[in-house]
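Format notes (please read before filing issues)

Several people have asked whether sequences and structure tokens are stored in separate files. They are not. Every record keeps both together, in the order shown below: the sequence lines, then the token lines. Line labels are part of the format and must not be stripped during preprocessing.
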Amino acid sequence: MIRRPARWIALGTAVVLAVLVGILFTRQPATQRLVKSPLVGRLAPEVETFDVDRYRGRFVLVNFFATWCIPCKEEHDDLVRFAAAHPDDGRVVSVVFSDDPDDVEAFFEQRGGDWPILRDEDGAIATAWGVARVPESYLVAPSGRVVGKITGGVTFEFLEEQLARLRRPAS
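Then the structure lines:
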């Protein structure tokens, strides 16, 4: 008699686990999305090791990433493509979030990307920008104002849509 409840419990546990595994393997990966941020509309925070004013007149995408972050790895080819598509009017800047310098160097050597890479040793840059987790990106307008916070791995198409939206004349 004692065996029967144990079988039902085991069967119920197996069903719950099967459902959870099914959900995990069939759900869509986290993708980019624009989210609210107190920075939007304000001038980009100053960073000692990077002068964003140097890029006034160009869009700047400030991308917080880590080599151990799967969505960061997945978005990197799109960042390279975006940077190549906007040599005159756009710039990508990567901020390393809690990572080993040798891993970062190897990452860029293998995957490309010839933009500035900033180390954030003490987390001050991430704190100033309000970063919760990687990947997160901030789009800075040619005026130096933050115009969007993007969470999740970005795609080339999404970035192009954002630039097109921002370049449209206000109606």
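For reference, the curators noted about this record: The chain has five helices and six strands. The chain has one domain: 29-167.
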